[in-house]
Amino acid sequence: MIRLGLATVLGAGRDIEVVGESADGAGALDAVARLRPDVVMMDIRMPGMDGLAATEALRTVAGAPAVIVLTTFDTDDHILRALRAGASGFLLKDTPPLEIIDAVRRVAGGESMLSPSVVGRLIEHVVRDEDRGDRIDRVERARSMLGRLTEREREVAEAVGQGLSNAEISVELFMSVATVKAYVSRVLTKMDCANRVQVAILVHDARG
After folding, report:
1. Which of 1, 131, 134, 196 is the S-S candidate for 112 at Cβ 3.0 to 4.6 Å?
2. Do residue 52 and residue 32 come from a single domain?
3. Domain residues for 194?
4. Which helix (H) or strand (E) element contains residue 169?
5. pLDDT tens string for the chain (208 positions)?
6. Which of 104, 126, 148 is the last residue of a domain?
7. Are 71 and 30 contained in the same domain?
């Protein structure tokens, strides 16, 4: 039912084509290898190989598609694992249709789904029961990554961590959109991040 609903919603986007579906993670990997999509919408809760394992496997493949994770706050406690693995963002399962279409377009264009309020709630929900030793290691690693950046690059990273788009960062930091894109690219490289979501997570982690 969820797949049918999503396919119907996405079919309303004239620039979007649904090229395949799968009932589980293993099937998703096979479908991606055959169909070479630009974007994959990945549910977490699936039989056999779940969405977390499938996302991690997909992101290790050269030329991997962008991944949008489908989640709910109450059940998907390990969503950060998918984001750290390289997912480009997430959607709640009750997201309005137009926002779903916009999300696919954004990640296909290299952006990420980073609603500041939702990201904050999600991260808090996931890490609240984390082992103290793991948390300390995570904070130290994040601060080390941010330490690689110049002052201006760090400002851009902080803005990305707030969920701002390139256009919004351009206004916030008084630089052209082209310059923002160049800075974001350097930040991704220096911080060894696959996408903006991972930058946002490191920025959050560095705050301790």
Report:
1. 196
2. yes
3. 130-206
4. helix 166-173
5. 888 888 899 988 889 999 999 989 999 999 999 999 999 999 888 888 888 889 889 888 888 899 998 877 656 666 677 777 778 878 877 888 888 898 898 888 877 776 555 666 666 665 665 556 667 788 898 899 999 999 999 999 999 888 788 888 999 999 999 999 999 999 999 998 878 878 888 888 888 7
6. 126
7. yes
